[in-house]
Amino acid sequence: MLLVTGANGQLGRRVVTHLLARVPATALAVSVRDPGAAADLAALGVSVRRGDFDEPDTLPEAFAGARRMLLISSAGMPHEVRFAHHRAAVAGAVAAGVSSLVYTSLSTASPASIGEVHRRTEAVIAGSGLRHTFLRNPLYTDNFLGGVLEETELVTATGRGRVASALRDDLAEAAAVVLADETHDRDVYDLTGPAAWSQDELAAALSEVTGRPVTHDAVAPDEYARQLRAAEVPEGLVAVLLDIHATIASGGFSEVTGDLAALLGRRPLSVAEAVRAL
């Protein structure tokens, strides 16, 4: 049986959708905090289990019977909490007799503010004795596109930096491909989109799609932070965004690999194609 954690989340749901196109629903299980929110999956024949990373004792039972498991990394909480979640999930997988673990990690170019949790988690998994595969995801293209069709100016601290992001759905499909294929063992995939793009190019794509001029205002980090705080963005998120923008500006997220295309068997969607699909 294949098992997906966090299946009520944005990435997890997409992974499940892609898995259901590849395997029978009865060969798939999901571990979620709120089984009621996955009632639609249960109706399809998916085994829905309650597994709460904050309650590690629930995890061995939630993971029971799974041969291969996708651990989708926690998000939106303090780093030490996220790491504790991941460590509990790995221990739960070992206790449940899972044979192979696939983990959604993050690009090694990521700044410490978002990448350190993943580096530590990879070390725990590597030392667990489990067969494992790391999917080092890039930044999500989706996160740059929220509400952009209404914008006439993109304000960032990325300078002329470029980012080889990918759509969440393409990454979910890749995760489904890997989870459903038992040949993966100690593989590491550095996943990226088909090309690195700049905010200027995003603005140009938006101008083309909307028919109105959209510009990119590359501001200094201090000014970007001021604008974020004026918009009442939480201070912790301000720090993370500044780190991400600084990494983009320095070229840290610009490397393009062919790993995602190889897993998908096709070219991933570009940022311009993603804009046209909005």
From TrEMBL:
<protein>
    <submittedName>
        <fullName>NAD(P)H dehydrogenase (Quinone)</fullName>
        <ecNumber>1.6.5.2</ecNumber>
    </submittedName>
</protein>
<dbReference type="InterPro" id="IPR036291">
    <property type="entry name" value="NAD(P)-bd_dom_sf"/>
</dbReference>
<keyword id="KW-0560">Oxidoreductase</keyword>
<dbReference type="GO" id="GO:0003955">
    <property type="term" value="F:NAD(P)H dehydrogenase (quinone) activity"/>
</dbReference>
<dbReference type="InterPro" id="IPR052718">
    <property type="entry name" value="NmrA-type_oxidoreductase"/>
</dbReference>
<feature type="domain" description="NAD(P)-binding">
    <location>
        <begin position="6"/>
        <end position="181"/>
    </location>
</feature>
<dbReference type="Pfam" id="PF13460">
    <property type="entry name" value="NAD_binding_10"/>
</dbReference>
<dbReference type="InterPro" id="IPR016040">
    <property type="entry name" value="NAD(P)-bd_dom"/>
</dbReference>
